[in-house]
Amino acid sequence: MAIDLLSIARTGVMASQSQLGVTSNNIANANTEGYNRQTATQATLQSQRLGDNFYGTGTYVSDVKRVYNEFAARELRIGQTSMSAAETAYSKLSGLDELYAQVGSMVPNSINDFFASINSVADLPTDLGIRSGSLSAAEQMAISINQMQSQLDNQIKQTNNQIESVTTRINEISKELANINLELMKSQGDNNEILDKQDALILELSEYAQVNVIPLDTGAKSIMLGGSVMLVSGEVAMSMGVSAGDPFPNEPKITASISDKTLNVDPSKLGGQLGALFDYRDDTLIPASNELGQLALGVADTFNEMQSRGIDLNGNVGSNIFRDINDPLMASGRAGSYSTNTSSAALSVNIDDVGALSGSSYELSYTTAGGYSLKDNQTGEVSSLTLSGTDLTSSAGFTINVANGPIANGDKFEIRPTAGAAAGLTMIMTDPKGIAAAGPTLTPATTNSGNTTISLNSMDSSATGFPGTATGSSITFAIDTAANTYQAFDSAGTSLGTGVITNNNINAFGMDFDITINGTAVNPETFTFDLAFAEGNNSNAVEMAKLSDVKLMNNGTGTLTSVFENTKLDIGSQTKAAEVRVDSATAIYQQAYDRVQSESGVNLDEEAANLLRFQQSYQAAARIMSTAQTIFDTLLSSVR
User: pLDDT value at position 189?
Assistant: First the structure.
């Protein structure tokens, strides 16, 4: 029995030593990120029969396992993905909100300063110093809009760089996970340290995108991103990457590649940091850029049009202050063609009515069965367009010109009517005398009924037949609204020709003298525009100054500055909503984290108690060995 006691004592000492080793390892790794608490499972050795009874032969440690709950781990990964997406969105939006609050304040301030300078010109229309100051204010307004666009462009570049950095890290993780899978296949998934490292990498991966884990019989785990992309399959890793955007190259898309096959990944299904970065770029930055372009078009068109209604200090019809809204430098990036298109059609966009623009983007598609369809990406509204020659005219304030057509069945294009305008806005007037402060005087004939009024929209002194602005020059229109016709006369009463009234509008033959008619005359009525230049005339400058409060934009619902302020308010609202989402997502994550820690985390108080327990067990087993030795010595002494 003494020999049996020594054997039993030996197994007890070894088992207690193993338990102490596992407990010590838990204590040592209490602060190790990703460590899962381990437990040693102790079992009894097979009994031996002696006579009529079975006697135990000791104990052994049958297994050392991680304390791991797959359901709790999955809940933690989901919480990590949601929290990471919320934190990324809030970080980006709060930065943009601050940008609009600080740098962005110069945009409405510069617009107000320009209107104030126009007021000063109206007060003293012949003062060249005031006129020069007004041009300086116009230039500063254009520069402030340019600078704001530059800030948004930088935000887009930074976001694109972050997307690329995240995909690089995802690739590193996927390779590590594939190597870990290979190791686990060799050890049949029994290496606790490798399993901890695997879980830590998967948890990190869940920061970047939604992760689905598929356990394999070999001990390895296959990983899917966003429920659609197999990132790791056994020991094989797929590579994530970015490629030029479609249809706009400066908006990269994300791809997944394995061997020689590459497929596009839908970022809206990824979640995590990647999904949040794409959402921020596509749903916040690009719309903000388009709306800033809408403001730039509004500024340029409004003041250029007002110039065309007045007469400058040189006695000429006013010329443009800003670059024309359809200049190629203002129209860059208005249309993009998808790479899947089969035709060689190239599109350009011409702005017809700035007031009808919304700052939205559109999808133009063509099918043989349905014809041309234009979808507003913001509202989802779809309208049908008819091709007239090479033009597709929409009701949203722009016309699409189709070159190198026809468009093939199934072709798609993205239309951004306001894109590029904020970067292209610039002041082109250099002569302060060019500000058209004066305006033509409109005089209705005394014989008119008074039921009809007309207003001048624009005039073009470069057109053939324009009577000029010299002393005594004038143009008279005899309007017959019943017949929808008109006749024009110069200051000598000589007929300049006749024309047709279309939709209560006169665009005089060859002279680009654009007039709007209000009301219906019972009999033909006559109106005279006195084009004689007078130095003290400030009527057009007064009308320019009034435009600060006129709702010119978004179909008559907003002023020039309100376009920018609405964007700023929208970003502020998004930022506040993102802050709320962060709080909610953090609470959910913390709940999941606490659950994991309660099961898999190291509790130092519990481990300290275990340390004492196994220490006592070790000492007791050692005492058995000492007792067995005493018994053995006694037996030896008895036979001497």
Answer: 62
The residues, ordered by sequence, that sit 6+ positions from 606 with a Cβ below 8 Å of its Cβ are: none
Q: How far apart are CA 258 and CA 240, in angstroms?
A: 9
Say which residues have a Cβ less than 8 Å from residue 294's Cβ, sequence separation at least 6: 354, 357, 358, 359, 418, 421, 553, 563
Cross-strand bridge partners of residue 214? 222
Mean pLDDT, range 494-520, rounded to an integer: 77
What is the rounded distance in angstroms from the CA atom of residue 459 to the CA atom of residue 401?
26
Contact between residue 11 and residue 59 where contact means Cβ atoms under 8 Å apart: yes
DSSP 384-407: EE-EETTEEE-TTSEEEEEES-PP
Q: Where are the alpha helices (DSSP H) in 188-234?
A: 192-208
Closest CA to 104 of 272, 235, 291, 246: 291
Q: Report the 10 Å Cβ neighbour count for 477.
A: 21
Q: How far apart are CA 553 and CA 358, in angstroms?
A: 8
Q: Are 233 and 215 a contacting pair, CB within 8 Å?
A: no
**What does the alpha-carbon distance between residue 106 and residue 112 come to, in Å, rounded to a whole number?**
10
Q: What pTM was estimated for this model as a whole? A: 0.86
165 and 207 Cβ atoms separated by less than 8 Å: no
> Model confidence at 1, in pLDDT bands (50, 70, 90)?
very low
Q: Residues 188-215: what's their mean pLDDT? A: 90
Angle at 48 between CA 43 and CA 50, to 5 degrees: 150
What are the Cα distances from residue 603, in Å, to 23, 54, 63, 69?
A: 11, 39, 21, 16
pLDDT tens digit sequence for 368-389: 998 999 999 999 999 999 999 9
- 420 sits in the region (left: phi over 0; alpha: psi -120 to 50; else beta) called left
- What type of residue is 504? N
pLDDT at residue 48, as a whole number: 84
Question: How many beta carbons lie within 10 A of that of residue 236, not counting itself?
Answer: 15
End-to-end CA distance of the chain: 20
Residue type, 14: M
Which of the four pLDDT bands, split at 50, 70 and 90, describes residue 2? very low
Q: Which H or E run contains 296?
A: helix 286-307
Out of 183-187, 413-417, 509-513, give the one with best mean pLDDT: 413-417
Q: How far apart are CA 343 and CA 325, in angstroms?
A: 29
Contact between 368 and 307 under an 8 Å Cβ cutoff? The reply is: no
Q: pLDDT digit string (tens) for 296-350?
A: 999 999 999 999 888 898 888 889 999 999 999 999 899 999 999 999 999 999 9
**CA 414 from centre of chain:** 16
Taking Cα atoms as reference points, which of 160, 99, 140, 118 lies closest to residue 564?
Answer: 99
**Sequence-ordered list of residues with C-beta below 8 angstroms from that of 24, at least 6 positions apart, any chain:** 611
CA dist., res. 99 & res. 154, Å (int): 12
The token duo for 256 is: 């997944």
Contact predicate 628/6, CB 8 Å: yes
Please list, residue by residue across 439-461, b when 16 or more beta carbons sit within 10 angstroms of its beta carbon and e when fewer do.
bbeeeeeeebeeebebebbbbbb
